[in-house]
Amino acid sequence: MTELTLVIGNQNYSSWSLRPWLFLAHHAIPFKTKKVSLFTDSMERDLAVHFSDNKVPILIDEDLEVWDSLAILEYLVERFPETRGWPEERSARAVARSVCAEMHSGFFGMRGELPMNCRRRFPGFEPGPEAQRDIDRVLGLWRFCRERYGASGPWLFGEFSAADCMYAPVVMRLLSYEIPLDTVSTVYARTLFESPAMQQWVKAGAGEAEVIDEDEADWPSVPF
């Protein structure tokens, strides 16, 4: 079997890159990474050879390229069915896809005000009304999934799934900006953050030297 290649952006900032990377790393699927420095003079040149409209991530499997985080996750679940990347039970699987789609298409207030940052914390951060509405919705989704479908394990749907990958950047955001969490959400966030694959990503992101000014929150910060 040919080894996969995942084209990603800066690990400190690229929330979309984190999602399929986490799935591959969590399941110990062999893959190589090709890192592109976002918003640099070399980015367009590095991505011009791909058909992704200058966006990351991109999964390369022999002569096939798949782009967009959610599409890559869907492909990986099909490619590696032993990962059981979606819940087995039909209703749980439908809800998992719903929460992934909601993450994929929404929460712009939270994304804009709380850009992902693996190396900084923002004590005392106060989200605006739109971001707070998004945060409240996310925490409500987590509680709903854990309480209704999470009996078999510590993840959103019990067992690790694509849904956990889609919400991994949100975990990073909420912890970095020290957002107050309810008990259920705290336990879930710590489970994901402390997982070996997530820690590997965070360590890599924290070790990067590049700074993307537009992805740095306008709030006093300290090292994570």
Brief characterization of the structure:
Pfam families: GST_N_2. The protein has 224 residues and is an alpha+beta fold. It has helices spanning 15-26, 43-47, 69-79, 90-105, 108-113, 129-149, 162-176, 183-193, 196-206; strands at 4-8, 31-35, 58-61, 64-67, 120-121, 222-223.
Distance between the termini: 39 Å
What fraction of the residues are assigned to beta strands by DSSP?
Answer: 5-15%
Mean pLDDT, to the nearest integer, reads: 95
CATH fold-type name of the largest domain? Glutathione S-transferase Yfyf (Class Pi), Chain A, domain 2
Computed Rg: 17 Å
Overall body shape: globular
- Per DSSP E runs of 2 or more residues, the count of β-strands stands at 6
Protein name: Glutathione S-transferase
Pfam family, one: GST_N_2
Organism: Sedimenticola selenatireducens
InterPro entries: Glutathione-S-Trfase_C_sf, Glutathione_S-Trfase_N, Thioredoxin-like_sf
Describe the structure.
The chain is 48% helix and 10% strand. The chain has helices spanning 15-26, 43-47, 69-79, 90-105, 108-113, 129-149, 162-176, 183-193, 196-206, and strands at 4-8, 31-35, 58-61, 64-67, 120-121, 222-223. β1, α1 (15-26) and β2 (31-35) form a beta-alpha-beta unit. The longest helix has 21 residues, at 129-149. Keywords: Transferase. One of its GO terms (biological process) is L-phenylalanine catabolic process. InterPro entries: Glutathione-S-Trfase_C_sf (IPR036282), Glutathione_S-Trfase_N (IPR004045), Thioredoxin-like_sf (IPR036249). One of its GO terms (molecular function) is maleylacetoacetate isomerase activity.
